[in-house]
Amino acid sequence: MAIRLSRRKIASYYADELIAGRDIVRSLAAYLVDSRRLREIELIVRDIESALADRGVVVADVTTSRSLTDQAKTAIQTYIKATTGAKSIELRQLIDDDLIGGVKVAVPGRELDATIRHRLNLLKATKV
Amino acid sequence: MAELSVTELSKDLRDAIAQLEVAGDLETVGVVTRVGDGVAWVHGLRSAGYSEVLQIETVDGIVEAFTLNLNEDEIGAVLLGSDEGVSAGAKVTLKGTVLDVPVGPELLGRVVDPLGNPIDGGPAIKTKQRGLVEREAVGVLGRKHVHEPMMTGIMAIDAMFPIGRGQRELIIGDRQTGKTAIAIDTMINQGRQKTGVINVYVAIGQKLSKVARLVERLKEEGVMDQTIIVATGPSDPASLLYLAPYAATAMGEYFRDNKQHALMIYDDLTKHAVAYRQMSLLLRRPPGREAFPGDVFYLHSRLLERSAKLSDDLGAGSLTALPIIETQAGDISAYVPTNVISITDGQIFLETDLFNQGIRPAISAGLSVSRVGGDAQTKAVKSVGSHLKLGLSQFRELASFAQFGSDLDEATKSQIDRGQRLTELLKQHQYTPAGVWEQVASIYAVSEGIFDKVPVAKIKEAQTALLTRLWTDHKKDMQELNKGGEKINGDSPFAKLIEKAAKSVVKGFED
Known about the structure:
The structure holds two protein chains of two kinds. Helix content of chain A is 49%, strand content 22%. Chain A is an alpha+beta fold. Chain A folds into two domains: 1-55; 56-128, no CATH class. Chain A is globular, with a radius of gyration of 18 Å. By secondary structure, chain B is an alpha/beta fold. Chain B is built from 15 helices and 16 strands. In chain B, the strands form three sheets. An eight-stranded mixed beta sheet of chain B has the order 8-12-11-13-14-10-15-16, with helices on both faces. In chain B, helix 10 crosses helix 11, helix 11 runs antiparallel to helix 12 and helix 13 (459-473) crosses helix 15 (493-507). Chain B starts with a helix and ends with a helix. Chain A binds chain B through residues 6-8, 43, 46-47, 50, 83-84, 105-107, 109-114, 118-119, 121-128, and chain B through 9, 12-13, 16-17, 19-20, 22, 24-30, 33, 43-46, 57, 59-62, 72-73, 91. Strand 4 (110-115) of chain A pairs antiparallel with strand 1 of chain B, so a sheet runs across the interface.
């Protein structure tokens, strides 16, 4: 049996292939099935995203309680570019009523939580 | 009352909210992938360091953890609280510090948990300083040889296996042989003799009822003011049991580094090793002998190496350690006992057989040893102690074959008689530590043969009579003798005083 590869190695290989423009999603899927690592799929996706971020391609999750205006989107993009130094950014928008208000920006490995829900949680934890 | 609190509450809330302002920057986060048995596995947080504190967000607030496994793909962290609220998917952030605890004189008289939080129902503890839980031990140049006595008040120990300030002396024995009793007597003696030594008692997974009894007793004896108790119970998570001795040592080191003397009591390191074994196995580190991980020796050696006598340049403070190890059926060749025996500067071995024979403290004279304390003994105790050790060892040799026959020559018989009296003399009740003058006078009276005519059963009575007489008639001299600066032999004035008093006491006890 082949040596068990670490997720980081798989992610880094796959990110390189993606940037080179080759689509190897089927081979990755086959590898995971073959090595019985299907349970790790979510983590591998996360690892690939962070490997891509290291190479300047950032996938960002933007969660808000209402849909964003184009102006806000551009502002967030500029902000992410400035803080991560990314060359290209792909925004994934998610709507979550539970956040009450504000915005949550998550890039691989890092996060900015400026939602009302988060502040309320913190307030609960500080115990006035 | 009700009216007033509304405005105050709103002000408090406003302040709390003001402090919550989110810093406008991306912070490094990870996510919990698995959690269970007090261990959380975290994905992400690539910049985390070893032993760094993590904060895990849960619905009930923040739970802290510290990293112990740094793998390529994930981090293994041990939770410092309950794992109930922690779920997979929870957000994890770095606190940016390694573990530290409050240290300082503010802790004196308090009972705290290994993170420095009070558990005695008292007010919050505010200290000026914090100390690192894991800290490197003092180097060679920062040390000095052990030369001051750390009197335990137990005659058998102070005379035969003396402990010095900065020494590590192991107390080892089966369950119910009086290990903790020796440690407690030593703490009480620091109060009685007004040595000013700070006691730090660490309960590692001890029954909390036992800790509560100890606190009561120390308060009764008036030594709680110079004592810190770091307590963990059997229901605490293994991570806290693991941290307890290190955190307590950090508290003791404060006094060592500030020109004072402190005494650490680790009760007991067997449970500490077991807690560490639990953590290691849950972190999937490979098990070795007795399923302990490979670094169980380092676990205790790095802890005990922090006890030291500091050089004059560093203020000449000291940290003495009395670790306790519980053996199973007297087996001192098990893994953890052999490790700790080889780390420490000697051991006091307690035997079940002796304990059941009524010889308490049940110290085995043959297996106990103190490797550095001799230099630390006061001259007075040293001069009588050498006779005692000799007398007892001759007695042990003869007593074994004297059982076979009754035809013994006079010399042998007298040695056996002397030995029996010495053994009787070294029996000592709990909570009655003896000062230097009491030890010197009692041992001198027996080892010089003055008490030979007193029946063995009445030795303790005779001893009490002698001490009472000496104290009432020669209080000044005894106070002087208590300083221990002079050798006691045939010519010294103290010896003559003791001899005279002893001879007159004997008259009342002769058959």
